[in-house]
Amino acid sequence: MMSLASRIEESAGRGGAVTFMSGDDAERVTWAQLLDEARSMAAVMQARGVTPGDHVALLGPTSRDLVTAIAAVWMAGATIVVMPIPMRMASLEEFIAATRRRLVRADVSLFAIDPELAPFVEPQPGDPPMIRFDELRLEGQRVGPDRLDRPADDPDRLAILQFTSGSTSDPKGVALPHRAVAANLDGIAAAAELDPDDDVLVSWLPLYHDMGLVGLLTLPMTTGTDLVLGAPQDFMASPLRWMRWLSEFGGTATAGPNFSYVLATRALKRASGLDLSRLRIALNGAEPVDPDAVEAFIAAAQPHGMRPGAVFPAFGMAEVAIAGTFPPPLAGLRTDLVDLRVLESERFAAPVDDPSADGVRRLVKLGQPVQGLEIRIVEPTSGVVLAEREVGELEIRGTSVCNGYYGDMTATEALFHDEWLRTGDLAYTVDGELVMCGRIKDVIIVGGRNVFPEDIERAVSEVDGVRAGNVIAFGIEGRNHKEAIVVVAETKLADTAELHHTINEHVRAVVGVPAKDIVLVPPSTLPKTSSGKLQRSLCRDRYLGTELQRV
After folding, report:
1. Which domains, and CATH codes, for the chain?
2. Is-contact 153 5, C-beta < 8 A?
3. Cross-strand pairs, 444
C-alpha cells in the first residue's frame, strides 16, 4: 500500500486544486503547485535534521502555509502532529501549558509554528527546535523541490499522531500509520462514491481534528479532488459563509458537527440567492446527531435547492483515522423509534410504530461499516457479543484501526479487547446499521434506569432563555448513595427565577424526577474541547469544586 506522500504525488497531476478562503476572499492553488512547495519545505526540514520516522509538530490557524507544511512532513517521511488551537481562548497560560505537554508526549523533533503565535510560545530548555512557517516557506523557495531526498515508502511508519483533548488528563496521541489512514481514505471514497473529476469538497473544520484533517483535507489532497477550505473562525463569525461557499463553488460534499448545522439553519432562514443543488453529502458527525436539528436544516436548505437526501448522519472517531460507519449517499435521515423506558431499564431498543406514543425516543441510523472495518456490540463488562437491538459497547476491528496511544502502553492495553477496539460508546445495531445511544462513562443511573444525558440536554436546550447546544447534564452522588442529576446551562438572562422552574419541568418530563441542582452560567463558560465538544466530566469536576461561575 502506497504512503500518503506517494498518493499525493500520483494525484497532483489530475488538475485539481485547493481554494483557500480568508473571510470572503479566495486563493486557488493547484495540488501540483502545492506539492512543489511542500517538497521545498520538506527539503528544509531535512536540512534541519528531520529524518524518516521523526515527529514534526505544526501549530497555526488554517492557512496555505499550514496545509503545505502538512504535506511537507509526509514528503520528508516524518509524522505530523497538528496541535490544537482552542475555539475560545479561556486562558493563554493553559493553552501554552497544553501545547508543551503535547510536544513532550509526542517526542517532537521539530516544531513549526505560525508567525503570529510564535511570540506566545517562547522556547525553553528542553523544547524541540522551533521554526516559523514563513521561514520554512522562504527557505524552501531558496532551496527548491529538487533538493528533497524523498525516503522510500513504509506503510507501517506513523503518518499522524492525533491528540485527544487532554483537558482532564494528560493528552493521548492516537498513533495512525500510513496503512491505516490510506485504508480509511479508500473506505471513505468507496462509501461516499467519490468522483475526483466532479466532486468539490467544502470545509471550515479545524485541521487539528480528525474530521477536518483526514476526511476533508487528506482525502482530496491524496485523490486530486477540488477542495474549498476555510477556517473555523470564519465560519463562527458568519455561519452563512459555509453555505455561500457551497453555492459559489458548486460544493458536492461537506461535513460538520451537529451544532454547526443548527447555526447554518438559522443563517439559511435569512439567506437568498443560494444554489445548493449540487450538494449530495452533508455529513453530520463528531457529536450526537439530533434528528430534529437535521430536519430543521433540511427545511431551511430545501428552498435553496438542496435535496433532502443529501443529509448524511455518520459515525467516526480518531482511533479509526476518521470514518467508522457511513449510510448510502442520498439516503437522507433515517431514524429508529424505540421505547425509552425499555431502553433505559433493560438496555434493549424495543421498536415502536407510533411516533406520537408516550415515551418514544427517536434515534438516528448511522449506516454500515466502511470498507475494511467490522463492528460488533458487546456487554461492556463480560465482553459477550450481543444480538441486534441489544445495547452494549461498540467495538471495531479492521484495516484502519490505530496502533494505540503513542507512548502509553497502559491506555493502549485498555483500548483493545483482543483485536477489537473498545470505543466506550453505547450502541446497538438494526439490520447491520449502527445506532448510537451515548457514552458509557456519561450514563446517569436513576432508579435503576440508564438515563442518557443527551436526552436531558436536548430537552433543556429547547427552553427559551437557554443557549441551544450549551447544556451539560451529569450525575453526582445524592442521598443514600443514589445518583442525582445536575444540569448546567448557559443563558444571557439576568432574571433566572422562572428559568430554573421551566428547566426543572423539562428535566422531570424526560427523566420523571427533578434535577438536584440547576446551575445557570454566563455564555461561553461551559468547558469544551479544542474541537468544540462539551466536556461533561470536566464540568462535573468544576461543579464539585465550586468553580462554576453562576449567573
Report:
1. 31-194+207-223 (3.40.50.12780), 336-440 (2.30.38.10), 443-544 (3.30.300.30)
2. yes
3. 451
Quick: pLDDT tens for 134-174: 999 999 999 999 999 999 999 999 999 998 754 445 678 99
Q: Are 31 and 224 in contact (CB under 8 A)?
A: yes
CA 208 to chain centre: 9
Strand partners, 498: none
Name the pTM for this structure. 0.91
Which three three-digit cell numbers place residue 287?
457529536
Q: How many CB atoms lie within 10 A of CB 462?
A: 11
By C-alpha distance, which of 207, 217, 159, 166 is closest to 183? 159
Estimate the crossing angle of helix 64-75 against helix 133-143, to 10 degrees.
60
**Which runs of consecutive H residues, i.e. helices, occur in 192-255?**
210, 219-223, 232-237, 240-248
Q: Quote the CA–CA distance of 170 and 172 in Å, as a whole number.
A: 6
| pLDDT per residue as tens digits for the range 54-110 | 999 999 999 999 999 999 999 999 999 999 886 555 567 778 888 888 999 999 999
pLDDT at 167: 42
Which residues pair with residue 158 across a beta bridge?
A: 177
Q: Quote the CA–CA distance of 8 and 10 in Å, as a whole number.
A: 6
> Which parts of 204-339 fold into alpha helices (H)?
210, 219-223, 232-237, 240-248, 258-268, 291-301
Distance CA 372, CA 384 (A): 23
